[in-house]
């Protein structure tokens, strides 16, 4: 039996700069390793592929953590550093187990079927073309601001019929909440967003429209309406998950493509490789570093490591996706690699509901970008900063040089 508790490392800034090297060391030592997160929470980090799949789907790993004492017991840092997430926003289906999770997911699943998502393709292409038009004539742009952020936030806001007027404020709240590194800023952003979404719920109740969120507010599926708290949390989950993952799929994918000229040339030569390339971007540098927290309902043996009952567990999706026992040459970008099998969207009952939408947006954004421009990085890769926080894996900025296609 592997002993992963001799030393409990703390995940500091070097982890956010390069989690992959640290994950590689952990995978060699054990399937799961106890670590202390940046703000002082002691958890088990699952890093190997096979064990990650188990932890994501095994009902012994629970999601519904309502008892704050479980968190308190594993917090070993300064109490002033304790990040407490807004209770109203946290009451969503990603933090629930069946049957509660099943009930809520059923109400939104039909909005994200492959057929419904495909109906959005012309509008996604139109938004992308408008954003690329705005980039025309510029020799350099910050790609996250110019394309990667505005595309998915526009799409999800239109799906939910949410005003775009507060887009930048919403982006600031979102970055703060998913980063979770500043306790005071996190508390304030959570309160502000909860208030904003509560007003949105009331507006939709009084003035329903032909959109997903109005349908949720007025849901009557077997008389199974969502209460106010569930509606606010559902709006939060759909808005955050509906854009954060795609922002970083587009950003991370473009970054790695520009760092691998041979792969860029291969994709330009054979555009049929694009769907496969999207899967490879998701595998190599997916937008989610660690899946959201779980806890063990009982003692669990995982790949030779015993995790006691009532321990907090995080699954490192980015580590599982670079496990060489599952993916040969796992640290190498290979857009011809057989697609599928990666865990970028999770696994099991909590598999990402918006995966078809994220894939389509990523494919349209990156494909259209390559059709329109010749690109290169406008900064030394070593100077680009990765966002802090265990959840999201993405760059703060991605400056790129632009030239009309074929002009160079």
From TrEMBL:
InterPro entries: Cyt_P450 (IPR001128), Cyt_P450_B (IPR002397), Cyt_P450_CS (IPR017972), Cyt_P450_sf (IPR036396). Gene3D superfamilies: Cytochrome P450 (1.10.630.10). CDD domains: CYP107-like. Pfam families: p450. PROSITE patterns: CYTOCHROME_P450. It comes from the Bacteria. Keywords: Heme, Iron, Metal-binding, Monooxygenase, Oxidoreductase. GO terms for molecular function: heme binding; iron ion binding; monooxygenase activity; oxidoreductase activity, acting on paired donors, with incorporation or reduction of molecular oxygen. Belongs to the cytochrome P450 family. This is Cytochrome P450.
């Amino acid at each position: 039996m592997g002993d992963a508790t001799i030393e409990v490392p703390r995940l500091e800034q070097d982890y956010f700069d390069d989690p992959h090297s640290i994950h590689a060391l952990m995978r060699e030592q054990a399937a799961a390793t106890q670590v202390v997160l940046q703000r002082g929470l002691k958890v088990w980090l699952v890093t190997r592929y096979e064990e990650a799949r188990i932890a994501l789907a095994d009902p012994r790993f629970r999601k519904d953590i309502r008892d704050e004492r479980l968190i308190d017991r594993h917090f070993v840092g300064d109490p002033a550093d304790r990040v407490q997430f807004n209770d109203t926003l946290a009451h969503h289906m990603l933090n629930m187990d069946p049957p509660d999770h099943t009930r809520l997911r059923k109400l939104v699943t039909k909005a994200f079927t492959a057929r419904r998502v495909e109906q959005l393709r012309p509008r996604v292409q139109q938004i992308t073309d408008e954003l690329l038009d705005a980039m025309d004539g510029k020799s350099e742009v910050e790609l996250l601001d110019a394309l990667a952020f505005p595309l998915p936030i526009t799409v999800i806001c239109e799906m939910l019929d949410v005003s775009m007027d507060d887009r930048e404020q919403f982006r600031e709240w979102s970055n703060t909440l998913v980063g979770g590194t500043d306790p005071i800023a996190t508390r304030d952003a959570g309160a502000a967003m909860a208030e904003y979404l509560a007003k949105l719920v009331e507006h939709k109740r009084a003035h329903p429209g032909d959109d997903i969120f109005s349908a949720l507010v007025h849901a009557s599926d077997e008389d199974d309406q969502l209460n106010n708290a569930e509606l606010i949390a559902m709006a939060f989950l759909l808005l955050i998950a509906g854009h954060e993952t795609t922002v970083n799929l587009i950003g991370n994918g473009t970054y790695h493509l520009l760092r691998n000229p041979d792969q860029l040339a291969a994709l330009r030569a054979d555009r049929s490789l694009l769907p496969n390339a999207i899967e490879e971007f998701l595998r190599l540098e997916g937008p989610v570093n660690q899946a959201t927290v779980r806890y063990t309902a009982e003692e669990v043996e995982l790949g030779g490591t015993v995790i006691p009952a009532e321990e907090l567990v995080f699954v490192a999706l980015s580590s599982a996706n670079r496990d060489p026992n599952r993916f040969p040459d796992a640290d190498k970008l290979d857009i011809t690699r057989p697609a599928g099998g990666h865990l970028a969207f999770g696994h099991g009952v909590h598999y990402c509901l918006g995966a078809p939408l994220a894939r389509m947006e990523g494919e349209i954004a990156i494909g259209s970008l390559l059709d329109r421009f010749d690109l290169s990085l406008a900064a030394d890769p070593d100077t680009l900063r990765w966002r802090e926080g265990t959840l999201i894996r993405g760059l703060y900025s991605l400056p790129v040089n632009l030239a009309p296609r074929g002009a160079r």
